[in-house]
Prior knowledge:
By secondary structure, this protein is an all-alpha fold. Helix content is 74%, strand content 0%.
Amino acid sequence: xxxxxxxxxxxxxxxxxxxxxxxxxxxxxxxxxxxxxxxxxxxxxxxxxxxxxxxxxxxxxxxxxxxxxxxxxxxxxxxxxxxxxxxxxxxxxxxxxxxxxxxx
Length: 104
């Protein structure tokens, strides 16, 4: 997986560098902290807005065949990345089908 430091050192981060970091941000901040009632309400509200924004851009990558193809063909990621994140089986099948259809 990439870190934000490795992304900031790249002149043009590619989709393989950006998506895992988006997942890490979602896991570490947005998903865990939005429901943390120990945080003050304004901070939870800001995290909720951040999560919605992150989801908006993440959804745009879902509409891109190149994202699916790049992740499936990446030598160290392949389908294990999707399985590791517990993606629904249908989504994993879609990623594989998009990749297969690109060469048929």
